[in-house]
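Lab meeting tomorrow. Please check the following:
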Amino acid sequence: MALKKVKGNFERMFDKNLTDLVRGIRNNKDNEAKYIAQCIEEIKLELRQDNINVKCNAVSKLTYIQMLGYDISWAGFNIIEVMSSSKFTCKRVGYLAASQCFHPDSELLMLTTNMVRKDLNSQNQYDAGVALSGLSCFISADLSRDLANDIMTLMSSTKPYLRMKAVLMMYKVFLRYPEALKPAFPKLKEKLEDPDPGVQSAAVNVICELARKNPKNYLSLAPIFFKLMTTSTNNWMLIKIIKLFGALTPLEPRLGKKLIEPLTNLIHSTSAMSLLYECINTVIAVLISISSGMPNHSASIQLCVQKLRILIEDSDQNLKYLGLLAMSKILKTHPKSVQAHKDLILACLDDKDESIRLRALDLLYGMVSKKNLMEIVKRLLGHMERAEGSTYRDELLYKVIEICSQGSYQYVINFEWYLTVLVELIQLEANSKHGSVIATQLLDVAIRVQAVREFAVTEMATLLNNFPANAAHWDASNGTMNEVLYAAGWIVGEFSSFLVDPEDTLKSLLKPRQLPDHIQAVYIHNALKLMTRMLMRSLEAENSRDIVRLCNLFVDKVTPFVSSGNIEVQERSSSALIVIQMLQEELKPVNGAEGERDLLDDLPSTENGGISTDIPPAAAQLIRDFSTLFAGDLNPVAPKAQKKVPLPEGLDLHKWINTPPELSSPSSEGEDDMGELFVTNSEVQGRADRKKYVEPTGEELEKMREARKMEQNNNPHYLKGATRNSLPMKIRNDGCDDIPIAEIALEVPLTVHSTKRSDKYLMEDQKTEKQKKKKTKIVKKSRKSKHKINYSSSGSDSDEPKQLHVVNTLIEMPEGASLSEPEDVDQTMDPNDPHRALDIDLEVPNREAEEMQSKRDGKKQPSKTSNLIVQHDEKPTNSSSKKVKKDKSEKSRKKEGKSHKNNESHDLLGFSQQVPEDLGEKGEKTKRKKEGKKKKADKEKSTESSKKKLELKLGYEEAAGISTPSKEFA
């Protein structure tokens, strides 16, 4: 044995240790994979040796190799062997490798159960500590079930090191084996009052993590946590406790009233920014849970806002972001407190960090009112001109629209101003990806606000004429601003009665341009609406010559679109063309045999050279029929109206329209038959003929090549290649490289406008406000002091200007449906979330355990009187009296349970001292005294009745000669 030991130690002198492996990998950076493969072969040889120290050295090297991304799962048995070593140094290496290599689904974990249990019960605390640390990384459901009791015993260990690790380990056990939460919860609760601060902090962390998803189970622990919050000086533990209170206050609003004072004291005293932020967050949650608008806590809100202002003004970007985030939470409940710091939020829009700018934009969304909307939008538009980066500019554009359109335009006073802002956004952001959003807003305002339709039509007609020609060539990858043409074309056609020059607008709609197909289709359809309106005007004026001229104009403009490559454009242009051609046929004179002449020459004229009023009746009737097609207004449809359309009777959407044929066999013949069900034999033959490929000749190839070049030159979407490379070298070297490169001044804004059209509305609003202030001052001077208060209140911030235009809130819904009908609620909680299984009522097992314990105690030590009662009650008579007694006992239990619950909720956190607002202290004391007197009287009555029964029964036994039962029988 001694020779073997000497030989093993001598061989180990030449083995590579972990340091040699790291040094070798660094020296072989070019052939790292090859070197590691060589080292793995050496490690496999080392693992076959009997010396545990050699195996430990090999496993340590494997651990490092696994960190580099190589698979070492093949060495699982060797890792378990090193884990089971009696030496602590080897055991630590084995558990480290297991924590990296093993996972909860590893099949080898079933071999480690007894070994881990042995380490957990070891006398050496460090063996148990290493086992707990490694087990937390690869514990499975089976290991949690088998080792839960061993870990729970370590929670009561005399060594704080083991207690702390066991408490933390129980959280992993709860996630894998939720049934362990009930028996372990009393011990976990005890650790909150552990004398060691490390164990106490570990218990707080575990309960806070459990309460993060299921806070209602831990409401009973509020007194303990309140005591810890007021006595502890550990900032990290205070953060956890304050987070937990933030989750508990919505469940128990009275808890928040008691938390306000200690939280505000912490806000005043602490210098830790992380603790300050959590205190502010919890104060906000507390004030939300308490009834809204509490005047007593306005000082707390002001304190939080002032502290958050300090965070936002800090140079640290993280603190600034957190301050803005917390300010947005205060904004939901106390908007006026945040609106006072509007200048600070607007200053954050110029911050270098884009995330801070976006958070400031979110704050502005909630700070808007009818008074400051125009001013905020003006600042945002000016900021958009100076901003860099397309992503941030797109977000700015979207936020401007979101701010104005929130709450069905509740803050927009003048919709002419809003339409002007939308047009300016179109001109500012040509490459924006929010063109469809602007188009939707234009359509919505034009439909719902009837008072501004004339202004909207005028703006859209101008937009159709002035929209940049090259903007129509942009695709979705660069921007979607050409989507506004969709809205412009629709508005101009639908509300064409407001057009000043409808013929000019008709020409702009039918002008040949490279537009997306869906926009071109809308152009043609709305051009037909506009044409119908113009024909109706000419008919009312009895101007036949104008009707013929318009028909000729429309036919000339629409004819090219019939040959469009898009089927939608083809269909709409063909339909519109046929409609106008039908009208032309009716306008032809009866005796017009020449046919080829212009219709204008066939129409008769008056003696004075005026226009003839002789319009054929059929043509007039046809024009009137056309106008009825587009008569009436379109109302917006509710977003979820389609879901509420009732299903017709007898319609089964899950039923096959054509039942599929049954397959007799899965052979190829059956597949061929299935293929021929929907294709005829002639089509199959035609496809086969098409597949035959004929090699083109040289002349055909040359013609195809020339045709392709011509098509590429004429295609505006095709990117032409650089023609410079095809030139000779002498011509290419034209001295362009010698031209100095000039730097572009990026500080210059993209577009500079001295004054915008939307600014005039803001200036007019400011003038009216000044005039109102002057009038109020004059009235104040002429009135008495009593009237000053009334007039000053009328000019306060609470009075907001009234809307100049009315928004139509009517939306189309199916018959018998309403918006308030219940809808399916999506379950946002992940079904695979392990916290769902931990949603257990922790009070139930405790009550059951108390009942079981009381039953056991009653059986162990019964009294003589109880046995006597049992003996006499066992008689078959008086069964009805038994039922009555049972019913009475059940009712009394229910009443006691209800009163017990009320007392528990009332005594939470010492609420007996802090009485709710609706009850006074005197009333509460008198109630308790009355309840105590009633209980005493009931007890005295029950004792007296039991004594009387015992006396009667004892007298009956003495008369009958029955002996009393002995203690042994009990």
Q: What stands out?
A: The chain has a mean pLDDT of 75. Residues 261 and 845 are 35 Å apart (CA to CA). Residues 921-960 form the longest helix (40 residues). The chain is about 65% helix and 0% strand.
